[in-house]
Design goal:
This protein is mainly beta and 306 residues long. It has a single domain, classed as YVTN repeat-like/Quinoprotein amine dehydrogenase (Methylamine Dehydrogenase, Chain H, 7 Propeller). The chain is built from one helix and 25 strands. Strand 20 and strand 21 form a beta hairpin. The longest helix has 22 residues.
C-alpha cells in the first residue's frame, strides 16, 4: 500500500511540475498601451522583441514571464515594422514607409547600421526582413525588389546593400505586394508571400529569380508574416484573423493548405515567430483607432503541425 501511495504521489508531483512549467509561458503577453505593433522576433534564449510602427521604438521582454520594457526608445523619423533576430546578438528592423532598414545590438539597443534603401516615400514600404548566415533580406511591398545586406565575419552587417529585382514567375500587382519573408536553414532559398494575390514564391537569394509555389489553386490572401519550419510554412492572414498551415513538397515547388488556425486571442495578427513548441503572434489590431489607452498584445499558442 505504501508503495502504491508513493507511486501515486510521484505521478501527481511530476504532473504538477509539468503543468507549472507550461504555466510559466503565458498565452497573452501585454505590450504597452498605444504601442501599435507589427513585427516580432525571438532570440534563441526566449527573449522577444516587438516594434512600434509609428514611433520606431522596440520593446523587449521574456516569453517565460511575459514581463518586459521599452528597449529602444522612440526616434524621430523612424518606424519599426518587420523584425528578425540573427541568433548572434543583432536585431534587423524594417522601416516601412521611411524606405529604411536598421540594425540594432540586441543586447544594448545601440544602432549598428542604418540603410537608406529607397529615397522617395511614399512609393516605398520596407515591410519585413530575414537574416541568414550570409545576408539579411528586406522585402519591399511597393516595388518588385528585395534589398540584400551582405553579412561579414561573425555576421557583422556590411556598410552597403544590393537591390535584387524579382524576376521569373513573379508579377507585381496593384496595391500591397511582397510582405513576409523567411529562409531555409542553409540560406540558399528564400520564401516570400505576396499579400494582394495570396501567392507564395521561392526566391534565389543571389539573383532574385522567383518560382511560384503551386498550392493547387488555393491562395493565402492577406498573407503577412510567415515562418518556415522544415517543410511546414505558417502564414499569418491578417484581415482573416487566422494562421494558414501549409505543407510543402520536398523541393518547395508545391504545397497544400492542411489547416487554418483561429484563436480567441487574435485581433488582426500580423507576424509570428516560434520558441520551443509554441508560436507567438503579434496583434496589430488594424482598423482599431490607436489611442494612448488602446491595448496591444502577443498571443502564444501551441504550434500546430503540418
Amino acid at each position: 500500500m505504501r508503495r502504491t501511495i508513493l507511486l501515486v504521489a510521484m505521478v501527481l508531483l511530476v504532473t504538477a511540475s509539468v503543468a507549472g512549467a507550461k504555466g510559466q509561458f503565458p498565452n497573452r503577453i501585454a505590450l504597452p498601451n498605444g504601442w501599435a505593433p507589427e513585427g516580432i522576433a525571438i532570440s534563441p534564449g526566449g527573449t522577444f522583441y516587438s516594434g512600434s510602427i509609428p514611433t520606431g521604438a522596440i520593446y523587449r521582454g521574456s516569453l517565460r514571464t511575459g514581463k518586459g520594457a521599452i528597449f529602444v526608445p522612440a526616434q524621430a523619423g523612424r518606424q519599426a515594422v518587420g523584425l528578425s533576430h540573427d541568433g548572434r546578438g543583432r536585431l534587423f528592423v524594417a522601416g516601412g514607409p521611411t524606405g529604411d532598414g536598421y540594425v540594432y545590438d540586441a543586447r544594448t539597443g545601440a544602432t549598428l547600421r542604418t540603410y537608406d534603401f529607397a529615397t522617395s516615400p511614399p512609393a516605398t514600404f520596407v515591410n519585413d526582413v530575414v537574416a541568414t548566415r550570409q545576408a539579411a533580406y528586406f522585402t519591399e511591398s511597393n516595388r518588385p525588389v528585395l534589398y540584400r545586406v551582405p553579412l561579414g565575419a561573425g555576421g557583422a552587417p556590411g556598410a552597403t546593400f544590393q537591390t535584387l529585382n524579382l524576376t521569373g514567375d513573379y508579377v507585381q500587382g496593384p496595391g500591397f505586394n511582397v510582405n513576409g519573408i523567411d529562409a531555409t536553414p542553409d540560406g540558399r532559398t528564400l520564401v516570400i508571400v505576396q499579400s494582394g494575390t495570396g501567392k507564395l514564391y521561392t526566391v534565389a537569394p543571389r539573383t532574385g529569380v522567383a518560382r511560384l509555389i503551386d498550392l493547387g489553386g488555393a491562395t493565402v490572401m492577406n498573407g503577412d508574416g510567415i515562418l518556415l519550419d522544415g517543410r511546414t510554412l505558417y502564414v499569418v492572414r491578417n484581415q482573416n484573423n487566422l494562421i494558414a498551415v501549409v505543407r510543402l513538397s520536398r523541393d518547395l515547388r508545391s504545397g497544400r493548405i492542411v489547416r487554418e488556425v483561429m484563436n480567441s486571442g487574435f485581433s488582426v495578427p500580423t507576424t509570428i515567430d516560434d520558441f520551443g513548441g509554441r508560436l507567438y503572434a503579434v496583434n496589430a489590431r488594424f482598423g482599431t483607432p490607436v489611442t494612448q489607452t488602446t491595448e496591444y498584445w502577443i498571443t502564444g499558442l501551441k504550434k500546430p503541425r503540418g
